[in-house]
Amino acid sequence: MKADSFRKSILITGAGTGIGRDTAKALVERGHKVYATTHHDAEVASLRDALGGDAEVFRLEITDPQDRAKIAELDIDVLINNAGQGESGSLAEIDIDRVRRLFEVNLFSSLELTQIAIGTMIERGGGTIIFISSAVGRIPFPFLMPYGMTKFALSAAASGLRSEMRTLGKGIHVSVIEPGAFHTGFNQRLWSSRFEWMDNSSIFSASQIETMKSDSTRTLRWIEAKSTVSIVNKIVSASEAKTPRLRYVAPWYMAIVVRLLRILGA
């Protein structure tokens, strides 16, 4: 693939693994200036090796105000808010501090980072903000709602901010990417996180919990896409477009599933 006629400066958070790492690599290969960040110091060296010398790799823990402030010194054309964490379990019994922490990472810190980027983009004459949400940010999924609620909020925030930036008239575009399930290891950690605290004190019986475990394994085996290429292509398209769309979804069949479930009232 060949990049557009101009080289963009793109910062992506959560690039240490999975979709973030694959996206950073694709953007480097297309000739862009990539700031690939990760919240783990231990991942910096391996990420730098994977991306090569054309990428600038550093730690950016988005919940840390000092780390967030780093981007104010960079000339960024595109900010890809990809960093996030997962948490699952029933809303009827999950420790609310777990949910509160999840909103802090997935929504509030990304928004604070975005505000810094918008300030620099206004000075530069425009730019693009991209939020990585999820298909479960469009349809309620039982036992994934701690994570799903943060993504519902993120998708809504992207839509509202897009309209606000249009009113501002400074050439700043906002898009949201809504991936389905991809086999990166994230879904396994997300779906199993509830079993770290669901025990004999749970309102759900031991047999119900065992059924959840087997159902999770079977469901993920059925729905996960084995390659991240389709979602990486969507993120790259949004990053390079002069006027990106509001919403990008991959794999293609996930967009159909989401629409059908919404029509059916899911």
Would you kindly provide a written description of the structure presented here, covering whatever features stand out?
- With 266 residues, this protein is α/β, with parallel strands linked by helices.
- It has nine helices and seven strands, in the order βαβαβαβαβαβαααβα.
- The protein has a seven-stranded parallel sheet, sandwiched between helices.
- Helix 4 runs parallel beside helix 5.
- The longest helix has 29 residues.
- The N terminus is likely disordered.
Distance between the amino and carboxyl termini:
39 Å
The beta-strand count equals 7
Strand order of the largest sheet: 3-2-1-4-5-6-7
Structural category is alpha/beta
Low-confidence stretches at least 5 residues in length (pLDDT < 50)?
A: 1-5
Share of β-strand residues: 5-15%
Care to give the gist of this entry?
The protein is an alpha/beta fold. Helix content is 49%, strand content 14%.
Observed structural traits:
7 strands, 266 residues, disordered N terminus, alpha/beta, 7-stranded parallel β-sheet
Please describe the topology of this protein.
Layout: E1 9-12, H1 18-29, E2 33-38, H2 41-51, E3 55-59, H3 65-69, E4 78-81, H4 96-124, E5 127-132, H5 145-168, E6 172-179, H6 186-192, H7 206-223, H8 229-240, E7 247-250, H9 252-263
Parallel strand pairs: 1-2, 1-4, 2-3, 4-5, 5-6, 6-7
Helix pairs in contact: 1-8, 4-5, 6-7
